[in-house]
């Protein structure tokens, strides 16, 4: 089993920045892909970004490209999401996810954190 704990959420003004962290514990050697998802009130959970173990492969949702950066510290079993130029529409609960393979859909991720709230005020 793998446990994921997110941190770093909070309230920020539009145009500001936040960095989210996700610390993994347990059978971390099994993790190949780590990702970030978000869920706004009344909306479905959506993909934000993902990174493979080697960190050479990263994917982003079109809505965050150029503003968000995902990175990974494998030695510390931690993945980060640097969020710049935040917009009110980025307001959501952000979830960290992990999987031993290369999931292509939200439902394929095996492990999930509890989420951290990000609120962007206008």
Question: What do these coordinates show?
Answer:
By secondary structure, this protein is an all-beta fold. The chain is built from no helices and 11 strands. Strands 2, 4, 5, 6, 9, 10 and 11 form a 7-stranded mixed β-sheet that branches. A hairpin with a 4-residue loop joins strand 7 and strand 8. The radius of gyration is 13 Å and the shape is globular.
**Multimeric status of the protein:** single chain
Strand segment tally: 11
Instruction: Kindly estimate the percentage of residues that lie in beta strands according to DSSP.
Output: over 45%
**Helix proportion of residues, in percent?**
under 10%
Biggest sheet details: 7 strands, mixed
Q: Secondary structure elements and their pairing?
A:
Layout: E1 2-7, E2 10-13, E3 18-26, E4 33-39, E5 46-52, E6 58-60, E7 68-73, E8 78-83, E9 92-99, E10 111-112, E11 116-121
Parallel strand pairs: 2-11
Antiparallel strand pairs: 1-3, 3-8, 4-5, 4-9, 5-6, 7-8, 9-10, 9-11
Descriptors for this entry?
mainly beta, globular, four-stranded antiparallel sheet
Question: Can I get a quick summary?
Answer:
This protein has no helices and 11 strands.
């Amino acid at each position: 089993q793998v446990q994921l704990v997110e941190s770093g959420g909070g309230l920020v003004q539009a145009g500001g920045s936040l960095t989210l962290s996700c610390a993994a514990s347990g059978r971390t050697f099994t993790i190949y892909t780590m990702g970030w998802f978000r869920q706004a009130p009344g909306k479905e959970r959506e993909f934000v970004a993902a990174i493979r173990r080697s960190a050479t492969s990263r994917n982003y949702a079109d809505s965050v490209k150029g503003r968000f950066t995902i990175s990974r510290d494998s030695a510390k079993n931690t993945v980060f999401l640097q969020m710049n130029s935040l917009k009110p529409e980025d307001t959501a609960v952000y979830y960290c996810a992990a999987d031993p393979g290369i999931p292509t859909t939200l439902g394929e991720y095996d492990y999930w954190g509890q989420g951290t709230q990000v609120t962007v005020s206008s």
